[in-house]
Structures are given as C-alpha cells and as structure tokens.
Specification:
single chain; alpha/beta; six-stranded mixed beta sheet; 7 helices
Length: 263
C-alpha cells in the first residue's frame, strides 16, 4: 500500500485556505499513486483551543463532509482531523478515515487531551477505540498525546495491523516522537505511521519528522523534514509474518497484568 504523508504547514484557523491547500496535496498524491493519504491533527486549523471558532456540529461536521467529497472525487482513502463542538460548548479532537466512495469508515475521538498544553480545559477525551479496513489492512487512528500511553496501543493492536498517529508534536520534544513511534511499533508488532505538521502554529514551532515504522521497529520512510507530501510503501502482510515468526503477543499474560492493577 502506498501511503501519502501530508506534512502540511496549515494556516492558523483558516479552514477555507487550508481546504484549497489540502486539495493540492490530494492531487499530487493521485499523481504519485497514493492510495491512503493522511493529514496531521486538527488538519485544517492547527492545534487551537478556540472551540467556539473552529468547532463543528457532530451530526454534519463541515470539514469531514468536505473531505468525504474529495475522497470520492479522487478515489482515495483519506485521514482527516477536525474539531467537534459539543452542546456544552466544549470540544472533541477527532480524526476520521474516509473511503474512496466518500464514506466515513471510522471517526475517533482523542482519548487523552494534552493537559500540559491546556487541551483538557477545552476538550473532552473520548472513551473508545476506532477501527476500519483500508483495503485488506485493519487500521486504527490515535492522536498525538495518545502516543505517551502504551496501554491504548496494546488494546488497538489486538485488531489493528496499522496504527496511524496524526499529530501537532512541537519541535522541542522531537526526540521523544521518534522514540515513541519506534517503540510502539516494536512492542505491538504493527506498522506505526506518524503524521506531524510543520511551520508555526499558535507561536509554537513544528518541524514535521513524519515517518512510518514496520512491525520490527525499523523505519520504512522518514523522518521527513520540510513541508510537502511524502510517500511510503508499506507491506501490510509483513505484520502477520512478524507476529508468526516472533509471537510475543501470544506470550502476554493479561490476567496477571489485571491482578497487578495494570489495565
């Protein structure tokens, strides 16, 4: 499967301009044979706490619906992030995966709001994982700060062959980003794909370093620097092979972990 990682410098809280920019990435991806194109966290606004400005109705979120139409127009799987505005005026940080037919395959709400960055003051965390099939590959999206919590990755990888992590991961903590992506791939024996933004967002610098890692913790592509669309070819069948050759998942003792208070 050919992935497209849209390492985008989005214009702060300017959806209309970013929609146009994103479509150019999709057109470029189509020309490069991309089958599954992924955008970073809060793809069309940047990592903003202004829910009242950027939030969208749960029933018909504008950004998700807009990209459903583009997914169908260009015949491509697309991963897109947006903000849901709840009735209590708080938000949920969401990421949807869309089919080439323009259907919503899954729509995940970020479980762990980033307290250090005050996200928890404005956004409520989700309480469920989300899965979908992209061709013959089971995919689960998680978002940015989730990467620091290995428990959800163990849970997701019981089903998922590939976990995608759209992010707004700042330059100041980039060493941790690469370590976490490789560790989560290795310990869960799955393909990990991190999609980060570049540029300035809310006065915070981002440098990208999007990358894909195989089930043995080895980089398949990246980390990439600079703005642009980067392609990576992944062999999803390699996950099954890695788990058969070195079956660590079969050696897990979940009942013991529960006795120890590890959920």
């Amino acid at each position: 499967m050919r992935l497209g990682l849209a390492q985008m410098d989005m214009i702060w809280e300017d959806k209309e301009t970013n929609y146009q920019k994103a479509e150019q990435y999709i057109i470029e991806g189509k020309e490069k044979g991309v089958e599954f194109l992924l955008f970073p966290e809060m793809s069309m606004t940047g990592f903003s706490m202004h829910v009242e400005r950027i939030g969208e109705a749960k029933e018909a979120p504008v950004t998700r619906d807009y990209f459903c139409a583009l997914a169908k127009k260009y015949g491509m799987y697309i991963g897109i992030g947006y903000v849901e505005r709840k009735e209590n005026k708080r938000g949920r940080n969401r990421y949807a995966i869309l089919s080439p037919e323009g259907e919503v395959l899954c729509d995940y709400a970020k479980i762990h709001p980033f307290t250090y960055g005050r996200e928890g003051e404005y956004y409520d965390g989700g309480d469920a994982l989300s899965f979908c099939m992209v061709e013959d590959c089971c995919v689960s999206p998680l978002i940015c700060y989730d990467l620091r919590f290995p428990e959800v990755f163990q849970a997701a990888s019981r089903k998922a062959d590939m976990i995608v992590v759209p992010a707004s991961w700042p330059e100041a903590r980039m060493d941790a980003w690469e370590i976490f992506l490789k560790a989560r791939a290795l310990e869960n024996q799955c393909i990990m794909v991190g999609i980060n933004r570049v540029g300035m967002g809310g006065k915070i610098p981002y440098v990208g370093k999007s990358m894909a890692v195989d089930a043995e913790g080895k980089a398949l592509g990246g980390p990439f620097l600079g703005e642009g669309l980067f392609t990576v070819d992944v062999d999803t069948a390699s996950v099954k092979n890695a788990r058969e050759v070195f079956p660590t998942k079969k050696d897990r003792k979940d009942y013991v972990y529960r006795m120890l208070g590890i959920e």
